[in-house]
Amino acid sequence: MDARNTAIHTVNDVFKESMHVRFAFFIARLLCDLGTALVYPLTRYGMGERRFNLTYIIAMFITVLIVSHLHKVESFYLSLYLGSLCLATSFHLFVIWRRNVNQEIVHSYFEGNIILERLLKIFPGGSNAWILEGVYEPLLVAIAGMAIYLFLDQGLGGLLIFSSAWMVLRVRYYYTLYRKKLLDSRDRHIEANHHMDALNGKPSKDTKGFVVRNAINFSEMDRQILSGKTIQNTDFSSLTH
Length: 241
Description:
Layout: H1 3-16, H2 19-37, H3 40-43, E1 44-45, H4 54-70, H5 75-101, E2 113-114, H6 117-120, H7 129-151, H8 154-199, H9 220-226, H10 229-232
Antiparallel strand pairs: 1-2
């Protein structure tokens, strides 16, 4: 790997960790969470302190007011909904306070348990967290929204249906991040165990798909250089097919 390519990879690594990229991920997560915030306090319990904090609570109520206005929720039903959120929020804050008083340690970013989790787990795939949170929980909210839409208030029902769709998108986004992290870890493991085989030009079936482009034509000197410490700090994507 020449100095120019090494510099390019260094710049890429720095860019990935830059404040701009972190801010973009923060905004993406915030947008995902705001849609879920419309019902999250009503469907979960046991959240961590930093997961259910003052900033989240303020953002949640602002989002509810904005979306309620867009869906033209009648004032009576909006008051009931806001009242339910206030009661649920007070309960969650009390649980967090009591946990701290009793010195109970819970992960501060824990997203909580679904209230009807035991019931939902009996359905096909219910033991899979991604299906549970990305299908069954939103479906439960959507059914409640449809019932309210048909029999009580179309605005409030539409708000819940909107939130259920947003919950699906949120889980899909977090699942994509999870898969990316998992695949990155797998690739690093494969590269660490098969980089010498790849440098020696072995076929992909013997290296779990990790191959170094044009490795069979490397000079012995280049092969020795790339097999040393330098290769451990190199982005293999520039060498692979």
